[in-house]
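Batch manifest, entry 17 of 40.
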Amino acid sequence: MAWRPPFIPRVVWLSDKSEDKEEKEKEAEAAPASQREEVQEIQLLQADPNWELPEEEQKQEYTRALHNTEATVFWESFEPKAREVSTISVVEVMAGAPSRYAEAGAALLDMLVESDVSTLQQVPRIVRCIHQWFTSNVDESAEHRLDNTLVELTHAHPHDVVVTLLRCAPSCDRAAAAMWRMMVATSMTTKEVFLELLCVLEDWPLHSTSTSDGDHQDVIALAATRALREILRMPRCPRGLKLHFPRLLLALLFQVLYSTEQLPEEVDSFWRECQEEGRLPTSPSRFIVLTVKALLCRLGYRLVAFEVERKRGWDTLLHAETHHRAMGLLAREIRGVSRHFRDSVVSYLVELLRKNQPRCELAAMAFLVEILASPGVSVRGDSVLQLVPRYLQSECSVMRSLVLRGLIALSSSPLMAQRMRFLQRRLVDLLQDADVDVLGMTLSVLRKVILDPSVPVSTPIALQLAERLRPLLDNESCYVQQLSVSLFRDVMEHVADDGKKPLKALLHQSLLPLIFHLYDENTFVAATCWEALLRITRFLKKEKLRQVLTSQQPIEVIGKCLVRVAVKAQPRPGQAPSAQCVGLAAVPLPTAAAHRRQPAAHTRSRTSGVRPHGLFSKLLSLPEPSGADGAPARLGLAECRSRAAEYLRQSLTYLQSPQGSIREAAVRFLGLLGQHMRAQQDKLRLICDGE
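Output type: C-alpha cells
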C-alpha cells in the first residue's frame, strides 16, 4: 500500500484496491448532508482508480504542505509592517543553512510573494535570496521549486529583478542561468525581461541605473550578453527572442565594434573571472560574435551565418577599420528575412542616427543602406531624409558614399524623388568631390531628383549645375563622363524659361569639348556626346552644325562649321584683341608623338599626352576672362567678340589627353583654326614658327 501521513483522511488518498461499493453507499447515507457534498466531490477525483503518485513525490507533497502551514503561522506572528523585513531576514539565514531547511525557506519566499507582490519594498534582497537558494540546492527536484514565485516577482518588478540578478551573478552561474531560463520561458514575463536586457546591452561598457533599494552600482553590458548566451541554450525558443530579434542583433553587432576599443579595468577584470569559471574566448569581441551566430542559428537563420562565414564576414567584423563592411555584408544576407524585420531595423537605426553617436554611426549607416536597397521595404522615408543633410556633409568619404547609396535606393520611388528636391544644392556641391564613386552616385541621384517633368529646373540650380558639370566632361572615369553629359543635356531641356538665355553661354563653351569626345575610344561616351550635341545645337539654333553632326562628317567639316561664326567675330583693325588672344603668340604645334594612339580604359591617366612648355605654359595658366565685377565672364557672342581664342585655348588643353584619337582631333582642329586666321598674318606666323 502507498505511503501516506496518518492525520490526513483516508478518503483523499487513492488505493490500488477498490473499496466495497455497498459499504461506501451506507457511509454516504449515514453522513450528514454537508458531508455528502464533500464525499461526492472527492469521488470525482477518483476517476482513475489505478492512478497513484510515486511514493517520493507523496513525501515531497507532505513536506511542502507541512512547511506551508508553518510558514503561514510564522507570517501571521508578525505585525503587517514588519512581516516583509522579518521574513527576508529569516530566509537569508536559511538560504545558507543545510539543505534540510531548504523547503522551509522556499515556503517563506512563497508566502512573501503571495501576500501582496506589488507592494514589496525589498525586491533586490528577495532576488538575492532566491539566487542563493538555487545556489545552495543542487537537487534536480529543486530546479523548479520557486518558478511561480520568481515569475510573479518578475512580472511585478521586472527592472529590479533583472538588474539585481545581473549584479549579483554577472558571470551567469548555474543558479542564475536557471533563473534566466525560467523568466523568459513564461509569456507573462518574457517581453519585460528582454526589454530590460536590451537596455543594458545597448549601453556599452557600463549601464548606469538604480534599483528600488537605492543601489546605483553600474551594470556591465557583457553580463547581459553572458545571460543572453545562456538563454539561447534553451531547448525551446522563447517568444520574446523572436519579437526582439532585430534590436538584439543590432545591439550585439555594435557591441562587437565597441569591444575592439580599450576596455575599462572593471570590464577587463570581469572577463578574466568569466574565463576562469568557464571555457570562453580570450577576447570579449569573439565571444559576442559567437553569441551573434548562436542567435541566428537559434531563430533558423543558419544559412545566413554560413554565408557570412564563407565570405569571411565574421573575421572582418572583429576589426574596427572593416567593421562597417561586415555590417553591410550581413545586412545583404539577412534583409530577405521578413518585412517586419526590415521595418523594425529601419525604425531603430533612424532613431540611433538621430542621437549623434560617432562611435557607431558608420556601422549603422552601412546596415541601414543595405536594408533600404532591399525590394519592397516599407520605410519611413521622410525620417530617413531628415538625416541626409548632416551626414552628406561628413568629412568621411565612406559616410558620404553610404548616404548617396541610400539616396539612390530611395529615389527609385518617384514620390521619394520629389521629396528630395530640398537636397539639390547640397548634391550640386558634391560635384566638386575628388572621389570618383561619390561623383558617380551624386550624378545618378541628381538625374532622378531634378529632372521631374512636372517641375522645371530653377534658373540658379540650372546655371550652378552646368558650371559644375563642365569639368566633369573630361573626367578620368568613363562612367562619370556619360552621366555628366546626359545630365548636362537634360538640364538644358528642363530649365525654366527665364534661365534659357543665361544658359546659352555655358552651352557655347561646351560645344568643342563635346565635339572632341566624339572621337573618344569609349564608344558609349562618344554616342552620349553625339546625342547631346544634336540637342544642344537645336537649343542654340545652329542648324548647319546640327546637319553636319547628323551626317557624321570628319572633324575638319565639323570644325569649319563651328569656327565660321567665331572668325567673323575677330577684332576689327585698330581694336585691341581680347585678353586670351594676346597669349596665342607662342603656341607650338604638337609633334608627331602626339598622334600615337593609346588603349581606352575606364579610368584614364591624366598625365599622359603632350606637355606644355615655354610660353605655351603661360597661355594655359592665363585666367579666364572676367567681367567688370571680377566674376568669370559668360563668353557668349554678345559678351566676347573673339570666340576663336576660346576655341584655341580649349584645343590646347586636349593636346594633353591620354587618348591618341582625341589628341589627333585637337591637332587637326588647331590646323583648321589657323587656316581661318590667315587675315592675322602676324599671329598665324607665330603659331606656325612655335617651338
